[in-house]
Amino acid sequence: MLNNAAHDTRTTDPGQRVAAGVALEVAARTSAAASGGGEWPAEFDGTPAVFDGFEDPTMTPTLNTKGFVWSPTEASSIVTMDPDPLRVYRNGLTINERPDDLATNWTAKTGGYSMNVLFRAGSAISQQSFNVANPGILGMWLAFDLRVPTNFYHNHDPEGPEYIGNNNKLMRLWTDAYSGSDGGSKVGMSFRRDGDADDGSSYYFCKIFGPGQSGSDKGKVRFITTPQDRGKWMRLVFRVQFESVLEASDGSLEVWRKWEDESEFTKDFNYQNERICTSNSANITGFAAGYLMGASNAHYAEDTEFLIDNFEIAELTK
Hints:
Layout: H1 14-34, E1 46-52, E2 63-64, E3 69-70, E4 76-81, E5 85-90, E6 93-97, E7 113-119, E8 128-131, E9 139-147, H2 162-165, E10 168-174, E11 186-193, E12 202-210, E13 213-214, E14 218-224, E15 233-241, E16 251-259, E17 266-274, E18 289-292, E19 304-316
Antiparallel strand pairs: 1-2, 1-19, 3-8, 4-5, 4-7, 5-6, 7-19, 8-18, 9-15, 9-19, 10-11, 10-18, 11-12, 12-13, 12-14, 15-16, 16-17
């Protein structure tokens, strides 16, 4: 599939690609700003702080007021259709690498580039981490477009109990430490194989760790249905709010989703009156780090690639 002519990326010269990508991205964001920002639910009440559409294929956000930094990793890369599939950046290095299968479709949701997160067959780890500058963010909207792999199939883990072995990570945010056991909080989403449909489909659910919270599964909504959702894009939006003062237990986690063929967002989760906080002794007040697409405990039987586009963070205005 060829890109739109406005996003022609046939050149393999890294400098030319970066310059063209930055110009396109600035134009796109200027247009978006005039209409109130990116693609958000009607409830959106944030101030845009970070945006990365990956049109600068060095994983450098084109909007960044929070000292946001992606962590280098071998698992994630920036890809494009050139018009054939091409990896252009990975682990801090500019590259020009074709996949073995030139029929692979790496068409971005918008523009010419997207982030590719690869889960190797039989491997658990493939997360893309990020950090923000001190003092962190007390309340935020976080959103990104996610393309379901064309071969998606959620396996059982034959080595462990079904409840544990089916847990694949989708997103996490944390404060003091990832463990969430130091008095700070960790929140996010995971997805499991749906036992009600033995076809490799999955459901997703919320996780909230913190003082007095075990981090047990919260909620259950179908996430990916096979085979009809394979290759489709969804827009995921999270709104996370710290408690107003320590031990007030008035924090919240809300989640919306919109498939590419839908006109409106659906609110899938709404958890209020939660203990979401930074520990008393922390130097960082607010969320300091996170990741997308963490460990896959239900290992994929084949190499499986998720695409991510239009990553955004907005600070809450109230």
